[in-house]
């Protein structure tokens, strides 16, 4: 089970993540019972059409095929448009999509091979497409002010000069990114490489993306968007399906978790209906494979973060039903406490493996600069609704941090909010977590990262090296309602 020791290390004690009301939701360990807000959320979900959990099969987003291939590049075309899709069984919901798919189609790219993606904006508002976790020049980063006007298109060139990793694309148009992502503008971008191929990890049909998100629906199955509303987004979706099930063979599977929620933090465990938790092998994080597999009873995933993990279902008897459970609110346990179910079938031949060594992480150069970043936002009841980094809201005309190209720096990032969790995401660079609250990070978060979770009062020390591209890039809270409220800054690499 999730022990008190694990809870303390994760910052999940009651004092750290108590009730936070309207500004971020009630982040509590789930232990049954309902608050008034939870009861309201239950009623809203029921009104939208009662969904019996684990009755809808998991679907996998389609893989986007290139319309052209050359010796060095693959060419894709994507149209951002409105669509109507079935989310709650027997109903239709209007969503924003890439190519009509909710979530968007998956691009499977290769390290060292360029992907050229033309994005056509067929919507009636500006958009910007950011490859989250990508190492790209400013012109192809998809920044918040670098938007595509309605009726226009933009071609992004991703050279993919980085290790294989689970990345994702999403809208980043400032002040609109929160609602655009909530309504569907996100999709997986899975980057493979030769080193990963040689390991023998589960692949093909046994390598499955799991794009997590939550939503609130009204009585007509319309998606309800309210800024910073964590409490009422209590319908949990995986690949756009509510509380789905997946029939699995008795063999190893690789799953790629992407938290595409605006605000919800997941604390996930594989359970069997008893008090037992079944450890999984985490093999990857935001920036790619870990140095070695990390066996873990829980997986903590804040918005924007990714986790790759392997489960060997051959260890379970056919007919076993395993639930991917969530142990963190806000919301009633019967809704947000379950994510999806795995139904185990007969054992099948399996030549895949999880080797003891996965990747060689780059050496940590000696840092020459140290900086401090403080995250906070107006607390519930103050009457104000803004979010800050180092006491300032975002200003597109201001450079907050100037960095020498090639420098290695240590950034100390602190969550100064008293009741509200945040996380911290950097464009362009992957970092390493050196410390969390003065202690070494767990092995599961010791790899390459671009997003780090901080519960109230937590402090993380990060090391970053800026040796790829010059220009102006953002850093921000990736609980993207918070970034839309101003928790974002700009760094200039010169």
TrEMBL record:
Its EC number is 1.16.3.4. CDD domains: CuRO_3_CueO_FtsP. PROSITE patterns: MULTICOPPER_OXIDASE2, TAT. It comes from the Bacteria. Keywords: Metal-binding, Oxidoreductase. It catalyses: 4 Cu(+) + O2 + 4 H(+) = 4 Cu(2+) + 2 H2O. Belongs to the multicopper oxidase family. This is Multicopper oxidase CueO. It comes from Streptomyces laculatispora.
